[in-house]
Amino acid sequence: MDAHDRHIAALLQTDTRQSVEQIAEQVGLSISAVHRRIARLRESGAIRADVAVLDPKAFGLGMTFIVEITLEKVRVAEVSAIKKRLKSAAEVQQIYNVTGDVDLLLIVLARDIEHFEHISRELFAADPHVRRYRTSVVMDRVKTGQTVSVEIPTGGRPKRR
User: Fold this and answer.
1) Side-chain half-sphere of 21: how many Cα atoms within 13 Å?
2) What's the Cα-to-Cα distance from 121 to each of 21, 36, 84, 96, rounded to whole Å?
């Protein structure tokens, strides 16, 4: 991946609605070269998805919870099944398998406390493999996102291709 690819990726992750023409102008390449590079970035998996970032509150999900789950000592197959079940729950926005005092860290969206109680009973409390879980209520979503720091080498503009 060269400086042009990194520059294109950086531009796309901030706004996928930019036209290829606009991107080409900003990175100093032809429109067809930018098309090819974007296709290559998608094919390689460097660009995983083109998505719209939604405001949870606009869809009635006004509360965010951070859930720390400690599992009983279980086999790999059982942990995989738990992760698969949590992954399929629409309210679970993010899942991290972590090291330390807890095994899983989740970001969960809910309409209100009652909705979260229902979610927690269904997903955590009823699971015999969950030893315990601890919940924190998010007071303010200060920063959220999926942007990746893309370093673009400096020292002059890359040669036009």
Assistant:
1) 0
2) 51, 49, 17, 20
31 near 24, Cβ under 8 Å? yes
- Output the six-digit token pair for 76: 């790999």
91 exposure class (CB count in 10 Å sphere: 0-12, 13-18, 19+): buried
Residue 14 is part of which domain span? 3-44
Give me the pLDDT at residue 155, please: 59
Which CATH number do you get for residue 79? 3.30.70.920
Tell me the average confidence (pLDDT) per consecutive run of 10 residues in the chain, 161 residues long.
Answer: 94 93 96 97 94 92 97 87 94 95 96 97 92 96 86 62 47
